[in-house]
Amino acid sequence: MDFTRIKSDVNGNPRHVIHFLTLEPEGADHGALTISERYQRVIKAANKLGGRKYHNRAYGGGIVFQAYECELPRLVAMIRALLETKQ
Q: Which residue, of 13, 18, 19, 76, has the fewest CB within 10 Å?
């Protein structure tokens, strides 16, 4: 996975950022959706699993998760499953 480790939160919990395109299901048909519409769709699915929009100058289009590295692949699979059921 293409997660980037960022500074921990105030309680010392680890945080990781991933680009929203990585979270989209492989081979998904996006139809006439724009990039911003696709981004909002992924954010909405990620919010259900604890992901939040991450925006700063260095990393655009990111979703941040407060999780340990061993949990990240499972989160990605769950988000992709949520997005596939919505199509």
A: 13
Residues forming beta bridges with residue 2, ordered by sequence position = none
In 3D space, the residue among 68, 26, 65 whose CA is nearest the CA of residue 43 turns out to be 65
**What is the CA 44 to chain-centroid distance, rounded?**
9
Which tens digit of pLDDT belongs to each residue from 3-25?
888 999 999 999 999 888 888 87
Contact assessment for residue 8 and residue 45, using Cβ atoms and an 8 Å cutoff: no
The verdict on pTM exceeding 0.85 is: no
Instruction: Name the CA dihedral angle for 58, 61, 67, 68, rounded to a multiple of 10 degrees.
Output: -60
Instruction: For the chain, list the strands marked E by DSSP.
Output: 4-6, 15-19, 52-54, 62-66
